[in-house]
Task: structure prediction
Amino acid sequence: MIICHCTSISDHDIHAAIDWMRSADPETIITPGKIYHALGKAADCGGCMPLFLDTMRSNDKVNVPAQLQNLRRRTNQEITYEGRPQSHRLPQQSAAT
Result:
């Protein structure tokens, strides 16, 4: 089945690229960009992306390797703190000096 008409990518091409990437590097994280790159193509209009992702996710080999899952757990403090001061305004400097 044709997944992307702009670049002529079929579901077979996506599965073959995933199989090739997983056999070349078992610990790689497989992304749509890496699949396009492996096929020597680039996304054009993006209209196929939902179907592309569904096809990609249907492959058993696309999962993140177990040793790379949950490497970092977030705490509540890390979620609320964005790395900036509490106030976004600069302190007012007095004109009388």
Q: What stands out?
A: Strands lie at 2-4, 9-10.
